[in-house]
Write a structure and sequence with these properties.
By secondary structure, this protein is of the alpha+beta class. It has 1 helix and 3 strands, in the order E-E-E-H. It has one helix spanning 50-64, and strands at 15-23, 27-34, 37-44. The N and C termini lie far apart (28 Å).
Length: 70
Amino acid sequence: VNLSGFHQEISPDEIENVSRIGSGASATVWISIYQKHLVVVKEMHPQVHIYERKSFLGELLSMSVISHPS
C-alpha cells in the first residue's frame, strides 16, 4: 500500500501516552497527547505479520478520507 502524500512521519518522542484503551493480537491502542491535542494512537506489535500491517495501512487510508465535525 502506497501512502505517499497521505501521511507524515511522527517521532515517538512527540507523543505522550496517557492511558491504554485496549490491546489485541496485533496492536495496542492508547489515548495520547500530540502537540497539546488528545489523540488516539494505534501501536502495532513488532511481531505482527506483513499481511496484518498491510491491512492496517488500508484502514489508515480509509480513515484519512473521513471527515468528522469534531
